[in-house]
Structure formats: structure tokens, C-alpha cells
Design goal:
The protein has 194 residues and is an alpha/beta fold. It is 41% helix and 12% strand. It is built from six helices and six strands, in the order βαβββαααβααβ. The protein has a two-stranded parallel sheet. Helix 5 crosses helix 6 (169-185). The chain is globular and about 45 Å long.
Length: 194
């Protein structure tokens, strides 16, 4: 899927051999294959979206997110964004979700996208080919300030063994990528402070 997207479900159940392959793909953007006297190196310039379950089935609001993700910190550190989704039982919300899903099973043709898929594809292709935003001085200062504050943020909680996910220069590059992506979505040639 080089140049495209890779979606991984059950990322928390990945075996150690695959973890090593993920490291190479995410760090060097290549994959090396050696099979039956054939050795090849393939490009892996891919956006990765991974889904995983927390170690104990649900996120515990009293523990750090990092301690509840069953992946090595070196692999977690390769992802630009991590979204923990809390599953909090609520009669009202559970009723809405159940009603929505059951109606979709009853009438799948009712599922309509707000933006037609062909228009969305054309929009993404146009942005990739034509929009290449540059950082403004204000954006650089804002990104630097955010990065420094995040990196030096004290860990919450009193336990010594519970540490936040380590932040490194890799996340600084991720902040730049996310800022540029935000500008691209707005069809802007400049990454602004906003």
C-alpha cells in the first residue's frame, strides 16, 4: 500500500516478528523480504491507521493511557496521533447506538454519506497534487511552544512506574505534518497559527 493507506485492526495482538517488521516500515519506510533466495526491498511510504483494544478491555480513567496499551513504547512512539475511546455505559447513548445500528441492518440503503465518495476522491487527489503549504513564523512559534510544553509536562499521578508516553523530536515532525494537513484540508498555501 505504498503511497496509500494501511488499516490494521487488532494491533494489540501483533506477534513479535510482525512488530519488528512494523518498526522497519514505520521508521525507514521500507520493507525487506527474504524468501526462497529472493531478496527484495519494497517502499512502504504509507499512512497507517491502527485499532487496538486496551489491555483490560476498557480504559481505566485512573491510569495513564500508555500503561494500558499493549505495544512496546518504541512502536507507540511511531504513531502521530493516539485516540483512546472510552466506553462509558449510558442508557440514553446505548439506546441511540442500538437504534441506529438496527435501522441500518433493516434498511442498509439509508446509509448515505454527507459528501459523495467521487467528490471526496477528487478533492483528496486535488489537494495531494496542488496544495503544498509552507510554515509561517507564527505557526513555527506556536508549534515550538506546544512541543516544549508537552515534552516538559510533569507526569500526573504519584506512582513512579506510571509514566506518560515519551515525547521526542519524532512528535515535533508529527506536529508539522498535522499542521500541514490542516492547511491542506482548508486549501491553504500557508500553515497559520490557528
Amino acid at each position: 500500500s505504498s503511497g496509500g493507506f494501511l488499516f490494521i485492526d487488532e494491533l494489540d495482538k501483533i506477534d513479535p516478528e510482525d512488530t519488528a517488521a512494523m518498526h522497519q516500515a514505520l521508521e525507514q519506510q521500507i520493507i525487506t523480504i527474504s524468501k526462497a533466495n529472493v531478496r527484495a526491498t519494497l517502499k512502504a511510504e504509507t499512512a497507517v491507521l491502527g485499532a487496538a483494544n486496551p489491555k483490560y478491555g476498557r480504559f481505566d480513567p485512573y491510569q495513564s493511557v500508555a500503561s494500558q496499551i499493549n505495544l512496546p513504547p518504541t512502536l507507540i512512539n511511531r504513531f502521530d496521533l493516539i485516540f483512546p475511546i472510552r466506553d462509558i455505559p449510558s442508557r440514553e447513548m446505548d439506546d441511540k447506538i442500538a437504534s441506529h445500528l438496527l435501522k441500518l441492518h433493516q434498511k442498509p440503503e439509508d446509509l448515505k454519506s454527507e459528501i459523495p465518495i467521487d467528490i471526496l476522491r477528487k478533492y483528496i487527489a486535488y489537494v495531494r497534487q496542488n496544495i503544498h503549504p509552507k510554515l509561517t513564523n507564527e505557526a513555527i512559534n506556536e508549534i515550538k511552544k506546544f512541543y516544549v510544553e508537552l515534552r516538559n509536562k510533569p507526569s500526573s499521578g504519584n506512582e513512579e512506574d506510571v509514566k506518560p508516553i515519551p515525547i521526542s523530536a519524532r512528535q515535533l515532525e508529527a506536529l508539522v505534518r498535522l499542521s500541514e494537513a490542516s492547511a491542506k484540508v482548508r486549501l491553504s498555501d500557508k500553515v497559520t497559527k490557528e
